[in-house]
Amino acid sequence: MGKVMIQTGWWLADVVSQLLEPHERDAVRGDLAECGAGEWRALREVLGLVARRQAACWMDWRPWLAVIAIVLPIGLMLSHASRWWADDAVYTTLQYRLFDLSRLVQLGWRSDLFLPMWAAVTCGVSLAGWSWASGYVLASLSQRAVWVTVALFALVVFLGTLGTTTIVRAHSAAFAEHFFAVVFPRLIRVGLVLLPAIWGVHSYRHASLSRLTLSMSAVALLLLTVLTATFLEGSMTLGRGFFPSPLEIGADRLGATADDLRPLWPISLVMLWPTASILITTLWRRAPLSSSRS
Asked: Where in the chain are the domains?
């Protein structure tokens, strides 16, 4: 039992030390080994050092900008968008189960089958892209405080929809099941939001993407956002259980259709600012290189 506790103490100290810079991490490990510190003293020393380093990081304005400009607004929108995507996917799957494949000979029925599939793919890719861009810019702004801001980002993503519901949950008995109502949306948040955001952090910290790749990715995400803007807006209305008001419904008098008014269109601009930041900074860094060659 004592050996297990010792291993646990050193393991926790090693995990916490990951929040330090690599050179500082190695120095701390060497100092602790040299002075023969016990496992729990080592953990206290590492925790104290990490706390001091993190406090120093938050004396800068950039981590606070990351919280105000990305963690809170974009984390909240991604929370609703990911749940709306999950709920819509469940509802669409149930509709497919009732679909008569013999109707595929008719063009209209083929559209009814394939258009929702195409929308699900593009919206899912957009979710992952927005999350990746958010993680990338979080890392660039937060620097050494990045894992604190990422943890806050994850907290907002997972708790942002508490106390709300969606339109489709009121019309489908499938959401009475715990898996579809609770587990599946959380899996989507992990797969389409949290993991891409961590990938974005890794891409920035390790400079693993070329400038051309960054530029092309940013442009592609801009185009995807144009295609899926109504999905993002719907996630903040239908995805919060709000049906369009009579003043917002278009000439066909049917809610949630293409001719409805779009009062929430500016939220796409908010979602896009990390992508725009990546594109602008990438092109800005290229300008001195091209001018120096001429």
From this structure: 2-57, 62-293
- The tally of CA atoms less than 13 A away on the side-chain side of residue 285 is 10
Mean pLDDT, residues 206-219 taken together: 92
- Condensed to tens digits (0 to 9), the pLDDT of residues 35-47 reads 766 666 667 777 7
